[in-house]
Amino acid sequence: MNKAKMSIDRLNRISAIDNRIYGSFIEHLGRAVYNGIYEPEHPMANKKGFRKDVIQLVKELQVPIIRYPGGNFVSGFNWEDSVGPREQRPKRLDLAWFTTETNEVGMQEFDEWLQEVNSEMMLAVNLGTRGADAARNLVEYCNHREGSFWSDLRIRHGKKAPYGIKTWCLGNEMDGPWQMGHKTAYEYGRLANETAKMMRWVDPSIELVACGSSKMVMPTFADWEAMVLTEAYEEVDYLSLHNYWGNSDGDTESYLAGGILMDDFIKSVIAICDYVKAKKRSKKKINLSFDEWNVWYHTKESDKQIEHWLQAPPRLEDIYNFEDALLVGGLLITLLKNSDRVKMACLAQLVNVIAPIMTEVGGKAWTQTIYYPFYYTSVYGRGEALKVNIEGPRFDCKQYTDVPMLDSVAVYNEEEETLALFVMNRSIKEDLEITCDLRGVKADRCIGNVALEGYDYKAANTAESPGCVVPAQKPTGILEAGSMHTVVSRSSWNMFRFHIGK
């Protein structure tokens, strides 16, 4: 059996973790909103029409921020359609997904739902078919207290206190030819800069996210980031990254090493941000918002057959399996390893649409395989990220070379006096015997051991059998002279928790 050595030192700090790294995303797409979070006829619906069973599952994930209302949808969205009396809101054709949007759930309703799930809104503005004027009006409507046209309109709509939205996205995937109002990097950079200025003039306290590339393989990648930041560097706070993973060719070995691609993407964008900073002689540091990431490939072909102009048809309802959950666990490790610059991230999406939570119309809500690594990382991965030093075997696969078999990050929570150690064995062939030296963090006992392991790669949860693939609660490891000795199974994602002594 292969062996690996690990060590953790309290002084080997990556960064304090911004809890918004555990964000998510709900778009007016498929059954994310209608017959997802909102189903007034459901027996579990509250007085406002939101499903209480879904609310409970979202609350358990402890998602601090949710991006809304898109996504591709936002590039054709007139925000004024989603406010005011419901009976006066227009139905619109959504050209992003070729559906009919009723606007029954709008700004105030979604804000009320966010309060139920203890989250806040990351609001996107339309820089596709609209621009700076609509964006600054939206900030005034949401955040200005009173005494202006748009703030007083909000008050007449029944919302006296401002929404107080802090984080705003300047459009969505504007580098993509599929996007309504697609622009060149220069066109978008200029528009983002001018829009940001006007939004900040209304509310100087807001934070702004500019669109980076919608995936690393875009032909404009790197040039896009450099040009957008050249135009808008001083007016924005974050640059976005989007990427989805899939295993359509059945290469599980390369698939489970997908964190390599995420890490390369992040480090490349950081380098571009810092190049523009140097070029501008700026003292400002741009951080990253990885505000779309997940597995998405299972339904791409079948979704092409969906009839146009339906309201909320089932779309992007990928059913996730064991290997998908392992990948998601590994990607979370990668995000935490880069938490010095990745301050926000959004698992895309949250309910029904490429989501950890699924619902049946009139029926039950249930959790997919990817729910579990996200749950454990979100709940226990709060505090300070620490680097894990690893000496262990490596392997080559079809897509990558020199892949570390073991991937890991630690999170120290000073207030709770705990350390969470997240560990993934990427190998599809070999278990690993590990020795982890914890003297540098003064761990005195192991208080938890959770492992997602041992399933067929294609095993999945379903509405009928929601507990097919779940993590196992294992016996806690024993520390001897400050070290833990254990075996990490092949193709597994693990969380160990330790109590930290004085």
Q: End-to-end distance, in Å?
A: 36 Å
Strand runs, count: 24
Range of strand content: 25-35%
* Main sheet: strands, sense, barrel: 10 strands, mixed
CA-atom Rg in angstroms: 23 Å
Please tally the helical runs, counting DSSP H or I stretches of 4 or more residues: 10
Percent helix, as a range, is: 10-25%
Q: What value does the average pLDDT take? A: 97
Describe this structure in words.
The two termini are 36 Å apart. It contains 10 helices and 24 strands. The chain is 24% helix and 27% strand. It is globular, with a radius of gyration of 23 Å. With 502 residues, it is an alpha/beta fold. The strands form 5 sheets. It has a 10-stranded mixed beta sheet with strand order 21-20-24-18-17-14-1-19-23-22, covered by helices on one side. An 8-stranded parallel beta barrel has the order 2-3-6-7-8-9-10-11, surrounded by 6 helices. The mean pLDDT is 97.
